[in-house]
Structure formats: C-alpha cells, structure tokens
Please model this.
Amino acid sequence: MTQNEPFVELDLSISEKAKEWQSRARAFASECAVPIGHQLDLMSPEEAVAPGSPYFEFMARARDGGFMSLTAPPEYGGPGLTRLEEYLVLEELATGDAGLATSLFIAPLVFQYAHNSGSPRLVEELSRPYFSGERPEWSSCFAITEPNHGSDMMAAHTPSLTVAGGDVTARKDGDGWVMDGRKAAWVSCTLTASHALVCCTLDSTGLARGGIAIVPLDHDGVTRGAPLDKLGLRSMNQAQLTFNAVRIPEDYMLVGEDAYATAMHATHAMASVSMALLAFGTGRAAYEGAVRYTRERVQGGRPLRDHQATQLRVFRMFTKLEAARAMTRAVYTYNYGMADEGGIGSLAHSCASKVFATDTAFEVCDIAVQLCGARATQREGVRLADGYVFYPEKLLRDAKSFKVADGENDLLALIGAAHLD
Model:
C-alpha cells in the first residue's frame, strides 16, 4: 500500500467503468465533501440549513456529478451500475463526509419507493420529475423514529421484540388517509426535504400493524421542528416532524398493515448495512489521515511510523477495517441484489454488519485521536506539510453517532439474533 493508494482493491473483477466512477467519487469527496462537511460541522444547526448554506452547494454539485441519481431507472438516465459498483462509489463519498453521504443516500428514497410501487400515477407524479432532473429541488427524508418508540421501530417486524402503540397514526377517511402525531427529532434531512417517507401506525395493537406513506412536506398540517443541535454527523440536518390532520391520497399509502411487517423486514435488511457502509467511510477517513500523520510526525528523533507501538496500532486499524469492509460489501451486494429480484435479504447479516462496522469505526477513530495526540482535539483539524487536513475530533464524534443511528447497536444485535433461527 503506497501513500497514493487509499487501499488495495482485492476484487480483481472490478470493471473499468466501476474504477472510473470510484475515481470520480474520490475526487469529489476530497474536493467538495471534506471541506463543506467541516464547514457545516462548525456552524450552528440554524446556519447549516439557512439559505446560502454550503449544504445546498454540496447537494447541487452532487446532483451535477450524478451522485444523487446512482439508482435512477435507465429510462431516466441512470448510470446502470451494479450493486457492487454502487457500493464502491458510496464508500468514497462516505469517506469524504459521512453526514453528507447520508443525505445523498436518503435524497432519492421517496421517489425510488414511488417507482417501485408500479403505480403509473406515482411514477409520473413523483419519480419521473425527480430522476429526470425536472425537479432538482426535491429530496427525501425517512420518518421512522418516534418520541416513545425509537429503536423499537426497527424491531417492528420481529415478533419477540415488537410492542404496541405508535406516536404517528393514520386512519382511512373516504378516498384518502388522515395522519396525526409526532416523529422524534432524529429524522434525518427533515429541514431540507420536500417529501417524507413516513412509517405510521394503522392498528395500535402492535407496531407491526403499520403502514408506509409518502407525505409531501408542503401539505397543510405538516410542521417541521427546530434543527437538532447534536454531537456528530452535524453536516446532516435532523428535526422533528408533526402531522396534524394531514390528508394524503389513498395511493400515497404505499404499504398497508398486512404487508407492513414484510416490507419493514426488507427495508431494514438494506438500512442497517447502509449505515455500516457510511460508518465504514468514517473509519477509513480516520485511518488514512492517521497513517499520513504518522509518516510525517517526528517523536523521539524518528517518525512515529517507525515506532513499534505505532505500527501495532496502525495494523490493528487496518485489520479491523478490512474485515468490516469485506462483511459490509458482501452484505450490501447480497441484500440489495435480493431486493432487486423482489426478495428479502438477510437481516441477521445486515444487523451484524452495522454493529461490527460501527464499533470498528469508533475504535479506529479513537486510535487515530491517540496517535495524533493533542493536535487531534482541535476542531480545525490536523494539517500536514502538503496542506492535507483531516479532522480526527470530528470523525470520532461522527463514529459515535453511528452506534445509535437507525437503531442502537445492542437492540440491533437482538434483532439479528432473533432472525438466526
């Protein structure tokens, strides 16, 4: 592994097309995601979503680069990447800034669900305008978590773990649905989204008796809360959503209560491994920055990299990350591939990848801080002689956030265990 190679690609079957996309994503991450992610991290939550925020510059440049339409249907100019090729691109973006990469991940969600519904009306009304670029201002948020049902929502399809209730409910009313209730403040991209994919309760006897609906956020009765001031992933805005007698058309309820448990199982099989991918990028960024620092920093008359204690730490980082990458890549490719064929991926593997990759990322970021010493605690980052800057303090906070994102790790382990039989 040379200084110019972030990692060795062990899959010799990677196509030239994949390598080209990977290279483009790496350059975009370095030139755009890293500096803008750092800017947003230092801003107040209000500044980060205000008009003129660099967040909107990032999203516009990502759209221009094709990174917001990686999964676009071929008829709307999708690049036609395989799931493995898609993974390679997303890993590069996550290594640049995992919060911004999460925003890119979430942006097409509503419109992808609408396309997958097979409804000609939803495709024409929602999917085509988004993926064709006709409505570049559109993007999604995924409203799952609730004030009284946080990680419970991810277990809604697991009989041994699910509970009754639901803070957001929907009831059938004539030729539509009426939604009421409140989502928690951790709904990602709430303040910059135009549409929400909302998990709601249709039968309060259990969270598994729910529905998944599309809600345009400009509808009467929708209120967005104040931007959340939080520990990490500050480049990705989060806020509460409240629904007060919000009416949506009947076909905007994409999944009904009879199909909800299966739909959530399939969604969760993709969601947890997606979090693993994003967290892995955070760990990789910390590893690459720390390796460069130890080559340059002199202690005891020699570069840190020459000391055996440093070599052991760096090798542990490398080993854990390679294991996390191998698991995450395999599970991502399998679970998304199964979804493409109308099947359901392995939830046990998805939960395992999320728990292992996020724990690994946090450990690697912690070691990076130790290797860089006091310099690592500076919010302005660690600057090397060639002008390269990385931000171990920020990366450590981001990595910690991933351990509770989209389900707290211990509960996810219990969900995974429940699906081993």
